[in-house]
Amino acid sequence: MNKTTAFRKHILAAATTLALSAAAMSAQAAEKVTLQLKWVPQAQFAGYYVAQEKGFYKDEGLDVTIKPGGTDISPVQVIAGKSADVIVNWMPDALAAREAGVPLVNISQIYDRSGMMLTCKKSSGISTPKDLKGKTLGVWFGGNEYPFFNWMEKLGYKPDVDITVLKQGFNVDPLLQGQADCISTMNYNEYWQLIDAGMKPDELVTFAYEDEGASTLEDGLYVLQSDLKNKAFVNKMAKFVKATLEGWDYAVKHPKEAAEIVVAQDASGASTEEVQERQMENVAKLITNANTPKMGYLDPAAYHRTIKVLLSGGSSPVIKKDPGDAAMTHVIWDAAEKL
What we know:
Helices cover 41% and strands 15% of the residues.
């Protein structure tokens, strides 16, 4: 081997070593973030999966773990146990948890409209909310019941007196099997499960909480208040929010691709691209700020409207005290906008 060849090999080896070292340092420098979802992988959470798949989190120097939810998983308990940095939750549950001692703070609001509905069989004689009296109504619990009970209070209906409340599982069986006259549904999920099961739209009547004056903010991002005192955490969350909003903007623009990404995350194999694309298209109706400068911004008026709804539960309000602005912050959203 001559000196020139040896020198070239030495330079190549050195370059390779530097490249490997740089890659190792980059991987080591990636900040870890754990996100806990409210439910199983589906288009309801497409923006997070898209941000991960398209490399938006990686571009911000983040190593994000997305933990799916389920019937036996409470995002509040997960973050209270320090097993997540940030969770997806509905504001009624978050504010109730805060009053109960888990100081959650909203750092970004993804959905600006509610997708919750009460869906009834027309054959049960229901055409207006007044017809709900004397009926059996399926209700989700685990934090999802709060808007329902507020609505019933506004209608003047007392549970177990004027209406029968059926604790509903996360399926549509009670309506299909005649156990309930109405059930809880989301505009992007359970309503379509009824259609897929053979029911026709003209056999159903829906009451959107958004239209009944009982809507509350749904999928938002929440962290623990104590973590917001940590500057490094705030900076990390700003990067996370920035990348997340990019993911949602992309998902809304590309529902088919978003559906493909979501299906790939479903270990059960139950999801189909057709169903998830349809869900993504309906989820997009709840994110009216997508691809605008206000994407992910928590409107203070909507925040305080939700609090008002939760406080106006008569003898059984969801929360007893107005948290003021303590349960929300724009600090991370503002920082994300500047990145």
